[in-house]
Write a structure and sequence with these properties.
This protein is an alpha/beta fold. The protein has a single domain, classed as Alpha/Beta hydrolase fold, catalytic domain (Rossmann fold, 3-Layer(aba) Sandwich). Helix content is 37%, strand content 16%. The protein is built from 12 helices and 8 strands. An 8-stranded mixed beta sheet has the order 1-2-4-3-5-6-7-8, with helices on both faces. The relative contact order is 0.15. The N terminus is likely disordered.
């Protein structure tokens, strides 16, 4: 309860504790948002995507509790050279949130494979963060098996990849979760709690980030979807997936924050080793969300790798 009290105080006094959102410059490429139906005729399922730029495609996959918003510092720069496609996973952001059980990493990867096929994406770069990194790994394995040549390279940022205890899953239990299965606290408090535990420097958390990530959690469907994703974040066949990481031969950049308390850097080092062509980069004084906490440094690593 001490953490809840601290978070509430921070939010109430946020004028001095939360950073303002980063400005967007006039020369940044415009982002076009639209839905892509990855369902079947009798059961449509829409994923929200934000697309800009032209060139080889780059698909960006966010982590648990996030959305396309997490890539706000990446898209303008990458879109000057590439066709960037940021996607809200099923159950997240503006994407559909059906009342079913298919919210696991393999379920998400299957939907994104449909997106790749329906958008006819080739020579694709996939960038995934945290849970989105786990989805990227599963998607890479599937594409390499069925669509050889579709995937060009991977960027994995603080990615889930192995069995471990994930501290943020505690936010899916009491006192954060009520007996009715709904959140017992305002979504803004829960979002700030998650970001607070993920950032090395919580002073970098912005008003806009808290508001944006909390917005879909004001609806029961959004809360249920987040809980389902958290419950299913470890695939049932994880060991078989891990054994196949070595078959991913595409160049892969693995980026980690040195102070990551969610997925420790040792996991990143192991992942880079287990991949056939992995490279490990560590950012000092950075937590679990490098693309938000240290966007310029993270983007520099990604841009150098892509070029």
């Amino acid at each position: 309860m001490r953490l809840i009290s601290k978070i509430t105080v921070c939010l109430l006094g946020a004028g001095t504790l939360l950073s303002p959102a980063s400005p967007v410059t006039a020369e940044d490429p415009k982002v076009a948002g639209h839905y892509v139906d990855v369902g079947i005729p009798q059961l449509p399922l829409r994923l929200w995507t934000e697309e800009s730029g032209s060139g080889e495609p780059v698909l960006l996959i966010h982590g648990l509790g996030a959305s396309t918003y997490t890539w706000r510092s990446f898209l303008p720069s990458l879109a000057r050279t590439y066709r960037t496609i940021a996607v809200d996973l099923k159950g997240a952001g503006k994407s559909d949130k059906p009342n079913d059980e298919a919210y696991g990493i393999l379920d998400q990867a299957a939907l994104l494979k449909t997106l790749v096929e329906r958008e006819a994406l080739s020579r694709l770069t996939i960038i995934g963060h945290s849970m989105g990194g786990g989805v990227a790994l599963a998607l890479a394995l599937d594409l390499n098996r069925t669509n050889p040549g579709a995937l060009k390279r991977l960027v994995l940022i603080s990615s889930v990849a192995y069995r471990q205890q994930l501290p943020y899953l505690g936010f899916m239990k009491r006192p954060f979760l009520g007996s009715d299965g709904r959140f017992a606290l305002p979504p803004e408090v829960l979002v700030y709690a998650g970001l607070y535990s993920s950032y090395y420097a919580p002073s970098k958390i912005t008003f806009d980030a808290v508001r944006t990530y909390a917005h879909p959690l004001h609806e029961p469907a959004g809360q249920r979807a987040l809980i389902k994703m958290a419950e299913q974040i470890v695939p049932p066949n994880l060991q078989r997936l891990v054994a196949r990481y070595r078959t991913i031969r595409q160049p892969t950049l693995v980026i980690w924050g040195a102070e990551d308390q969610v997925v420790p850097p040792s996991q990143g080092k192991k992942l880079a080793h287990d991949l056939a062509n992995g490279r490990f980069e560590v950012l000092k004084d950075c937590g679990h969300v490098p693309q938000e906490e240290m966007p310029e440094e993270t983007l520099a690593l990604v841009s150098a790798f892509l070029n």
